[in-house]
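WARN  no MSA supplied for this record, continuing single-sequence
INFO  ligand: magnesium ion
INFO  echoing inputs
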Amino acid sequence: MALVVQKYGGTSVGDVNRIRNVAKRVLDTKNQGHEVVVVVSAMAGETDKLIRLAQQVTPHPDEREMDVLLSTGEQVSIALLSIALKTMGVDSKSYLGFQIKIATDSAFGKARITGIESEKVMNDLKRGRVVVVAGFQGVDDLDNITTLGRGGSDTTAVAIAAALKADSCEIYTDVDGVYTTDPNICSKARKLNKISYDEMLEMASLGSKVLQIRSVEFAKKYDVPIHVRSSFNENPGTIVCKEDKDMERVVVSGVTYNKNEARIEIMRVPDVPGIAAKIFKPIADANIVVDMIVQTSSTEMGCADMAFTVPKTDFAKTLQIVKETIKEFGGKEVKSNEDIAKVSIVGVGMRSHSNVATQMFTALAKEGINIQMISTSEIKISCIIDSKYTELAVRALHDAFELDKPSVTEEQ
Ligand code: ADP
Ligand code: ASP
Ligand code: MG
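INFO  complex generated
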């Protein structure tokens, strides 16, 4: 007997028939003799619908109340799934995040899980019940409802698997695994049998939404292997686990894109010590994560231009903070652009290869795509481009690094 945590995403619980399909899969797992905890997302499109509702009231809704609103999507799906399970004769019980004390900090809209009281869940499991948990939500020290950021149900599932020391954590979605790039925009995308936590971490942080980044951070920290699978078929999926010798030995393992960032540029800031700290401290204090930063070299006037990117959801707030900060330097000009995309290539094999960046820039140049910003790390290279070229860039990079061809290890 194993303890299995299964997470079903929005499309997998998108309508009543799909919820019945999930209940059937849970029943099958139970009939195999396993204990099951199920984490579910809101039905497809529901979270977006709730966001649009709030925006009809005001363009900048209060963050605490937003989390009260957004957490309701998951309340509907846990109840419906539990009802479906009971109809099939399965004893089950649904819980919201606060009821099993999924404790988080108070960063509304992007809260981090700090602990889970597993006792209640364990007691139910001991009684032979299936436990159905609302993904994406928690509660802070002051009993405020919090949400974990878009795609946060993945993180709920992995955190529960870690807290319960589950034997497996399965993430069921609308594709049957992790691919070399988004299979919905590149028909040549190829499914990977296995991927390391580190590569998946990069893919997730660079925009591959198949797993939320924090779920992979949790998985790596507590060594919880994740099995990403489809809820619509029985195909074996992708195992996300520690790097091992069976993994593909390739330089580049994936291509990602992210259209959720915006660029802010401050023109001619004084090029003296302490300026970057002055600009970025108030942004960090507002809990906003800055991604790429580029500073031009100093001009004759002793000034430099500073450009950086932030998530689109934090764009308006950042712009306001920046405008306030630069008043101190005599109100310099600020430019911004929301029509950007970040395309990236990821691979642990890059560590030992020198010409990967050139290959990437050449592939983009061949398509006439201009690069606005570049950033690199040991295992990734990212370029900011005009968002209208995103799909073209992803396909060009997938072709350039021949990601459609399996490596020797995968063919065995
Ligand atoms: P869920 O609602 O089940 O959480 P998501 O929409 O959050 O599903 O994530 C699944 C989607 O992730 C897929 O439909 C696919 O378009 C996208 N995706 C992006 N990059 C990849 C990738 N490398 N491999 C697989 N899917 C990817
Ligand atoms: N319902 C939330 C969202 O749409 C959480 C999730 O699906 O994981 O982002
Ligand atoms: Mg998701």
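Residues 9, 151, 154, 209 surround magnesium ion (ligand 3) (CB under 6 Å).
INFO  checksum written, moving to next record
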